Amino acid sequence: MSSRQTPFADDAAIVVQALADYIRESAGQAAPVIHQESLERLIDQLDLRRHLAQGDLSGESLKRFVTDYLAATTRLHHPGFLAHQVAVPHPTGALGSLIDGATNNAMAIYEMGPAAASIEYFMVNWMLEKIGWRGVPSNRQLDPQSLHAGGVLTHGGSLANLTALLAARSARVPTFWKSGNPGNLLVLVPEQSHYSMKRAVAILGLGEDNCLTLPADADGRVLPSAMERQISELQSRGKRIMAIVANACGTAAGLYDPLPEIAAICRRHAIWLHVDAAHGGGALVSDKLRHLLAGIDQADSVVWDAHKMMCTPTVCAGVLVRDHRHLDHAFEQEASYLLHAKDQPGFDFISRTVECTKAGLGLRLFMTIAAMGEQGLAGHVEGLVQRAREAAELITGRPGFELAIRPETNILCFRIDGDDHIQLEIRRRLLERGDFYISSTLYKGRRWLRLVFMNPATSLNDIRTLLDEITDIHSRID
Ligand SMILES: *Cc1c(COP(=O)(O)O)cnc(C)c1O
Predict the structure, then answer these.
(1) Average pLDDT of 152-169?
(2) Which CATH number, 3.40.640.10, 3.40.50.720, 3.90.79.10, 1.10.565.10, labels domain 99-372?
């Protein structure tokens, strides 16, 4: 067994060089965007058993492993990556993940990672202020009576949605924590809601059957004018609405729900409003696009993923509440001011999250934005949306193609002549060719091909090539 230790700096240089080559090759389309070997073959190819037994992952052996690993990845830096809502990570943000991994500061307790905790505090406030809320004052400025917003970064939007609904449950049904479900609670979610909402309702003990769908217009947006009727009908049957969820934006087609109207109804009935802005929150950084989220400051809670439109490596999600006390109380009814109770120079985030040991998620977000600059980030988001809208026009003008709806953000759904099965078959064959990686979705009762513009390097010319390939594949299907 080898016990040779190559210095960290040498191994890091090997890995970073391999990654730099990988990013360049991917951007230059020197390898397919997607290529799926079988799991058994990959375990063999990557020599996993031997490496485990020999403990030799250093120097030349490390280089070979990293090269083989990268060859088997799905390449997000490839301009043909159009499939999912995952950021093409900014390289400086990725260095944030490296620093976090190497230091392992479990920062949910301030003394375990003062730098990471300070950055999380700072970035949470940055997000709160983008929503239009008052950030958390620092310990020294804190007046316990002062009203301000609050938040925490957590490992992804799904966990963030669960945390936000937990805050709603604690605020609206404080007895639930100790005594359990009173039995008549409901959560109303948009027709187009992410599956994590229904899961959260079930995990929280309400029962999936008590996650009901809000009325929607023909495009699947929440229809406020029909909400009053639904609410009074449910209330007349003795039901209690614990929370209403709105999308900003929805996952399938990227549509933003009308937040001001929904918020007004929630306020009238004292119902908690949760806005799932996991994907679409990115538009808040742009003066040109933030109108899409007008009214978001009326929400009680918001979830906003940095690892979607904001170039940040996975995962980094903000759980943000208008009144910070609701997050303090979410995990423990008696937890008032746990965050601020200790005599210490910073905050403990631990009382606000499901996690105990927590990565320094703020660092990757901070380093990403600090490398691009806020203007650079705004330009990035605007560019993705702009390209989706231009691609929509391209598709509209093309015979045999149909657009689902004009995109409001960087998500675009379309289809080609034929039934649902044809769309899936086209996607399958497209992925096999490896020039493009796209997704598909059910929307308005039909199957659509779906493009998510995440890569700033994807050009309109790439989209022309994509449409040509789809036309070609379509002509070969009998
Ligand atoms: C992506 C997404 C989620 C889930 O977030 P993850 O970070 O993938 O867990 C939830 N809601 C919406 C609207 C999303 O787009």
Answers:
(1) 98
(2) 3.40.640.10
